[in-house]
Every structure is written in C-alpha cells, then in structure tokens.
C-alpha cells in the first residue's frame, strides 16, 4: 500500500427506496466516474441502503467558509417575521 | 440419468463457486485500495452464498439417498481434493490484481451464460438458484470486464501484466465447456446446461472485451481434469487452509 494511488476523491449521494432526494453519504477514491459509481455501489449500498447513486468529484464541490459563519448565518436570528406565522387565517381555509 | 448425476452436477457447480469465492476472499484486507478490497470481498461473498445454496441442495439429495446425514459443512470441509469437481481455472493462485480480475472475468462470463440457461432447467431447485445468482453474476461480469479493459488498455506495465496473466490462465478456459460424464448423462433430461450452446456466446463476449483491452489470446493447449477430480497442485493448499479448523476441531461451531 506504500505506493498509494493518486485517484481523485468523489462525493457520493444515495437515494433510498423511500427517499425523494439523494443524500450525501460519504466519499471514496476512484479513477473515473464509472468506477466511482461502482465503488459507491460496493461500499455504500451493500446493505440495501439505496436504489440510485450520484457521484461528484470532490474538487467541484464549493463550500462556504466556516470563518464567515457569523456574518452568513447569525443575521437570520431575529427575523422571526420571515416565518409565515403572523397571518390570521379565515376559518374556511383548510389544510394550512 | 440418476439422482447421483444430479448430485455430482450440483457439487461441481458448488465447488466452482466455493473455490473461487475462497480465492477471492484471500484478497480481503490486501486489496490494492480499500474500495476494490470491498468490491472483491462482495464478489467472494456472493460466490460463497451460491455455493451454500448448492451444497444444501446436494446434501438434501444425498441424505434422501440414505446413509448418514450430510450437511453443507461436511461437503465443503470434509472432502479431499480428489472429491472436488471444480474446474481448474478457479483454483489457480491469485497472482497479482491483473491475474485475479482476468480469472474472475473468464469465470463470470461463463457463469453469466451458464446461469441464464440453468434458469430454464427442469430441476426447480437449480432453476431457482440460477435465477438468484444471475443478478449477482451480471455485476461480477461488468466489474471484471471493466478491469480487464482498464489494465489491458492501460499503461505499458499493466498491459504486460495482463498478457502474462493471459498466458497463465487461457489454458484453463477450455475445460469450462468440456462436458463431464454427469453432464452428458443429465443433458437429455433438460436438467443440465448444454455447454456447446453457451460456448460461442462466451467466446464472443470474451473476444469483444479482450479486443477492447488490446489483448490477444495465446494458442495454448487446453488443460482439463478438474471435473474428474484431477486437480493442479494449488487446490490441495487451498483446501488445507480452508478446511484446517474443521479437521483440527471436528464439528466445532462458532
């Protein structure tokens, strides 16, 4: 194992039988997208976890910066009016 | 055609699956990369699962014949190499990754066309086992084909290693299609697969993949004998390791 591979890293998304969306389950190494899908099948669906696989090479995933978390997310703290909970609904309106 | 022929046939299929499953399991923890270690271990488990169904069926038939009760463990762990009816191909040593995936490819291509036919066997048990196994084998064939192409049509070194693997393994492919006595006896009853029918399908598929892999087959003499219990020296070592525990501690369970 000393001559470790230079295969790129891939992010794996699996949709379960009941699920509507693909959920991130982890990452793995593969030489190309076809091998990434097969590796994902062998690593992440061997206990019947899913029926659909997406793979994305990790380098194409761009993430927000944790250092900017306060300016990114804190301002939403006191904006309760953004939740639609301030309306008086007429009684005739059902299913809300 | 007798029940004994069906027993021999079922044992032959079980031995094929168990021996290759065991060979593949030797890679567990030693794969070239974690993901492929898991992939080959999954294939090993599929094959050993197939072997179990087949041994259980053979054991039932044997017990029904009278005599002491036979179990799947007795068949796997207490028969010696001359009782084993597997083809020579599956017992060959792992070698490098290229040899292992080429051996898998040759055998998966065989199993794929074989099980596709065995699904229509008039033996309901064999037909059911074939139907379940075919889904697994379809993936094994895909996985091993891609590796053969990747390495054959890869770097100079990977190509050279695949050519070497081909030289070592090609001579064991002919036996897959040489019917043994029990196969000939079962053929008219619609129980066994007609090997002559699947041979051209195998040749076509293997030819396509090898061509894409830029590999050419050597014209070696074909070896045979496994189906008659005449094995290469490799099987004895494999069984010694696989059967050690049951031989040293008879009947032990864990």
From TrEMBL, chain A:
InterPro entries: PaaB (IPR009359), PaaB_sf (IPR038693). It comes from the Bacteria. Pfam families: PaaB. NCBIfam families: PA_CoA_Oxy2 (TIGR02157). This is Phenylacetate-CoA oxygenase subunit PaaB. It comes from Puia dinghuensis.
TrEMBL record, chain B:
Gene3D superfamilies: 1.20.1260.10. It holds the Pfam family PaaA_PaaC. It comes from the Bacteria. This is Phenylacetic acid degradation protein. GO terms for cellular component: cytosol. InterPro entries: Aromatic_CoA_ox/epox (IPR052703), Ferritin-like (IPR012347), Ferritin-like_SF (IPR009078), PaaA_PaaC (IPR007814), PaaC (IPR011882). It comes from Puia dinghuensis. One of its GO terms (biological process) is phenylacetate catabolic process.
């Amino acid at each position: 194992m000393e001559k470790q591979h230079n295969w790129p890293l891939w992010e794996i998304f699996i949709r379960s039988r009941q699920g509507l969306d693909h959920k991130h389950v982890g990452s793995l190494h593969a030489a190309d997208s076809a091998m990434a899908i097969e590796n994902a099948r062998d690593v992440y669906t061997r206990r019947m976890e899913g029926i659909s696989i997406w793979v994305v090479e990790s380098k194409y995933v761009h993430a927000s910066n944790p250092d900017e978390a306060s300016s990114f997310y804190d301002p939403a703290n006191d904006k309760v009016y953004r939740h639609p909970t301030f309306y008086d609904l007429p009684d005739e309106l059902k299913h809300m | 055609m007798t029940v004994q022929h069906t027993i021999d046939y079922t044992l032959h299929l079980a031995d094929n699956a168990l021996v290759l499953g065991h060979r593949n399991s030797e890679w567990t923890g030693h794969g070239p990369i974690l993901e492929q270690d898991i992939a080959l271990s999954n294939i090993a488990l599929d094959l050993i699962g197939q072997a179990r169904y087949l041994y259980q069926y053979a054991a039932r038939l044997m017990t029904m014949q009278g005599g002491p009760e036979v179990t799947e463990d007795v068949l796997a762990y207490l028969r010696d190499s001359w009782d084993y009816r597997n083809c020579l191909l599956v017992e060959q040593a792992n070698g490098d990754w290229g040899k292992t995936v080429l051996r898998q490819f040759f055998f998966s291509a065989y199993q794929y066309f074989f099980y596709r036919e065995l699904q229509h066997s008039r033996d309901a048990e064999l037909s059911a086992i074939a139907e379940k196994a075919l889904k697994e084998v379809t993936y094994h064939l895909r996985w091993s084909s891609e590796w053969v192409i990747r390495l054959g049509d890869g770097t100079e070194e990977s190509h050279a290693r695949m050519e070497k693997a081909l030289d070592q393994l090609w001579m064991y492919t002919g036996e897959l299609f040489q019917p043994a006595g029990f196969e000939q006896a079962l053929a008219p009853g619609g129980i066994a697969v007609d090997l002559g029918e699947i041979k051209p399908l195998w040749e076509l598929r293997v030819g396509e993949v090898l061509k894409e892999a830029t590999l050419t087959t050597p014209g070696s003499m074909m070896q045979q004998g496994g189906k008659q219990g005449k094995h290469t020296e490799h099987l004895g070592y494999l069984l010694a390791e696989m059967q050690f525990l049951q031989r040293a501690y008879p009947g032990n369970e864990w």
